[in-house]
Amino acid sequence: MNRWLRELPASGAPAANSWQTYARMLKDWAEFLAVHGVGLFESRERLKAGLSRYTGHRATGPVKARFAATTWGQHMSILSLFYRWAMAEGYASAEPFTYRAARALFAGTGRRPVWAEHAERTKTFIGKLGKTRTVERDRLRTDHDRAQRVIAEIDAATAPKPDKDEQ
């Protein structure tokens, strides 16, 4: 970890403030993993499981621990850079998760139940509308369809993907 941090000025992060941010975010990640019994260079599966826990912690955990989506994106960008460096240096055998997958995981955390409840309530309400309420029915069907699409997108983004080696 320290070696990567020392190499930051030469690898495109010349600002000292950036080094501090990178160090703090990497330290937070490493400490979280350690508390949950996962090493920084464990297997891809263990790190992905750690990421799932970390996502829940940062999205819906204690208020002081929560990240905004933009902060999460920055954090995942830094971790992605770190793991690519670790692969190039022989510390890691594979990138445990992609930036895109990590962002999608955060976007879905805690939000799927809200959308599912909205879809169910809208469906119930549509069923209770009288036959003459066509304008309201059409509007609610559009709303229901949107909720279903959002749920499908969350499910697709957070579904486990097979490793490239397994394909």
Automatic annotation (TrEMBL):
Superkingdom assignment: Bacteria
Key words, A-Z: DNA-binding
UniProt domain Integrase SAM-like N-terminal: residue ranges: 2-90
Family matches, as Pfam families: Phage_int_SAM_1 (PF02899)
GO biological process, one term: DNA integration
Native organism: Pseudosporangium ferrugineum
GO molecular function terms noted in the UniProt entry: DNA binding
Protein name per Swiss-Prot or TrEMBL: Phage integrase family protein with SAM-like domain
InterPro entries, A to Z: Integrase_recombinase_N, Integrase_SAM-like_N
